[in-house]
Amino acid sequence: MELYVGMDVSLKETSICLVDGSGEILSEGTVISEPSAIAEFIKAKATGAVRIGLETGPTTTWLWHELRGLGLPMICIDARHAKAALSLQINKSDRNDAVGLARIMQCGWYKEVQVKSLPCHEVRSVLNSRALLVRIKRDLGNQIRGLLKNLGLVIGKAQGNVFTRRVEELVAENPYLQQAVRALLAVREKVSREIADLDRKLLSLTRAHQDSRRLMTVPGIGPITALAFCAAIDDPARFRRSRSVGAYFGLTPRRHASGEVDCCARISKCGDTMVRNYLFEAAGVLLTRVPQWCALKAWGLRLVKRIGFKKAKVAVARKLAVILHRMWRDGTDFIWSTKEAAA
Fold first, then answer.
1. Do the beta carbons of residue 290 and residue 297 sit within 8 Å?
2. Global pTM?
3. How far apart are CA 42 and CA 49, in angstroms?
4. Residue 284 has what DSSP assignment?
5. pLDDT at 177 over 90
6. Is the pLDDT of residue 73 over 60?
7. CA 270, CA 268: separation in Å to the nearest integer?
8. What is the spatial distance between Cα 189 and Cα 195, in angstroms, rounded to a whole number?
9. Which letter does DSSP use for residue 91 in this model?
10. Which of 70, 130, 270, 328 has the CB geometry, 3.0–4.6 Å to 198, for a possible disulfide?
């Protein structure tokens, strides 16, 4: 008899439900959210289960890898897809969610989510920390500018140490502003040092990662963007077609087709926001700062004349994602001109 298991995971307890091939509930229970306790319950109640499903969440990566290591056929599904199915239930509870997940496993109405490796998540943690510090530094700078602007003091364009000197000059004769601004400046300088430290660590990680170094041969792609792209994809073989990577990062337009209506809206903005922003910035660098000619830049500049700069940057960002994946999968460097391609 085929058995299917659904798990609704919380930080303290996990609700587990076991159903047969017809969707009939055979067993239910609640255990602590530890891999050993979950595995012990499943092996006692559902030996030989065909599929064991859980939805994405804060502890999903840890539990999935641990339970996979114990020999259980784990399947992770998107929490949005699970919510769409579980919302049909009248009452919302952990027990009912476990039952619903078990029946999703039984009927096969799901799309499995790729669970990234643990080393990949470790690199992501460094990238996320740097991105958070960059946002904090930007917010501190905007707060200082806002405080001074209220009194008619405009900093203007200034970065790094120039920003600090300019602020000190403007508040030199106002003791109240000095008290308000110097504390923010001190924190901003500390955050800047931490960002520089993380940049050095990320640069060393990129140098040790052969695939990231190869992706940096693409114009506009720096070490942080290349490392973030590799950490977001993890395994290039998971995409059968490279053009699917653009949709994975939310760089393709939404489509609504119903009856006689068929329209394309703005980009979906699904997937990894950080990598999507990095690709968008890389597209801007390619179109405005890279002096050397290449077919990709020429294509982007033609789009700028036809649809505008911002939309062209989005299109170039999507093209960059496709090119990066194909280079990674084929193990090739960036081709600058058609002459190189012919050779």
1. yes
2. 0.88
3. 8
4. H
5. no
6. yes
7. 5
8. 10
9. S
10. 130
Within 10 angstroms of residue 188's Cβ, the number of other Cβ atoms is: 22
- The radius of gyration of the chain from alpha carbons, rounded to an integer in Å, stands at 26
Q: What are phi and psi of 117, to 5 degrees?
A: -70, 160
What would the two tokens of residue 29 be?
A: 């229970």
Alpha helices in 115-174 (DSSP H): 118-149, 161-170
End-to-end CA distance of the chain: 59
**Short-list 254, 236, 255, CA closest to 245:** 236
Burial string for 93-113 (b: 16+ CB within 10 Å, else e) reads eeebbbbbbbbbbbeeebeeb
Phi/psi at 271 (nearest 5 deg)? 80, -155
Q: What is the dihedral of CA 240, 246, 252, 254, to 10 degrees?
A: 50
pLDDT, tens only, 183-242? 999 999 999 999 999 999 999 999 999 999 999 999 999 999 999 999 999 999 999 999
Task: Tell me if 11 sits within 8 A of 59, measured CB to CB.
Answer: yes
DSSP-assigned letters across all residues of 17-65: EEEETT--EEEEEEEES-HHHHHHHHHHH-TT-SEEEEE--TTHHHHHH
Q: Which amino acid is at 82?
A: A
- For the beta carbon of residue 172, count every other beta carbon within 10 angstroms: 10
**Structural domain spans, the chain:** 3-107, 118-208, 215-342
Using DSSP, state whether 9 is helix, strand or coil: strand
Tokens 């693409």 -> residue: 218
β-pairing, 74-77 vs 51-55, is parallel
- Ramachandran angles phi, psi of 233, nearest 5°: -85, -45
- CB distance 53 to 6 below 8 Å: yes
Superfamily the domain 3-107 falls into: ATPase, nucleotide binding domain (3.30.420.40)
Which residues have a Cβ under 8 Å from the Cβ of 340 and sit 6 or more positions away?
none
The one-letter amino acid code at 259 reads G
**Nearest CA to 227 among 254, 205, 248?**
205
